[in-house]
Amino acid sequence: MNQNAHTNLDQDLRLSRTAKFERSEHEAAEWIFDTLQLLQTERNLYDVGEHGLAEILKDGKLLCRLGNLLGLPLAPTAKYRTSRMPFVQMENILFFLQTCDMIGVGHDEIFQTVDLFEAKDPYQVVVTLMSFSRKAHELNASAFPTLMGPKVAKVKPHVPFKPLSLRGRQ
């Protein structure tokens, strides 16, 4: 019997998240580049195919630039700095996460700093960007004209009642 054929739930979830990330990585990068209106020369510096989304966003600079587009008066992202020092880069990421919290991105959708900085869970970064794009579009549609990811349902779907024969006796 081949023991490699068996996986546990953690491995299956990791494989599933990795597959979702691979499908959405380029969409996330294109949304960031389009929203920030980066010129082709600057886009070439951030080659997703060569570096990967996590490596491109690791210093927090592009994330803070996204946060600054919101035009919030006290946005934490306004304090970002460009540096090669890991502490400063992690602080930039934290500024973006604080901005996400300010605009109402759900806590369950916000990634942890290590998810991006150490590439622990890059798909969670994409989930945060999807939610950020929806909230940012609501706040400032001119700066964020396009949405990333699926649209949120506004109407609760109709769920039919169970027939009496299938309902539990109470």
UniProtKB/TrEMBL annotation:
One of its GO terms (biological process) is actin filament organization. SMART domains: CH. Residues 22-138 form the Calponin-homology (CH) domain. SUPFAM superfamilies: Calponin-homology domain, CH-domain. It comes from the Eukaryota. GO terms for molecular function: actin filament binding; protein-macromolecule adaptor activity. One of its GO terms (cellular component) is actin cortical patch. PANTHER family: CALPONIN (PTHR47385), TRANSGELIN (PTHR47385:SF14). This is Calponin-homology (CH) domain-containing protein. It comes from Metschnikowia bicuspidata var. bicuspidata NRRL YB-4993.
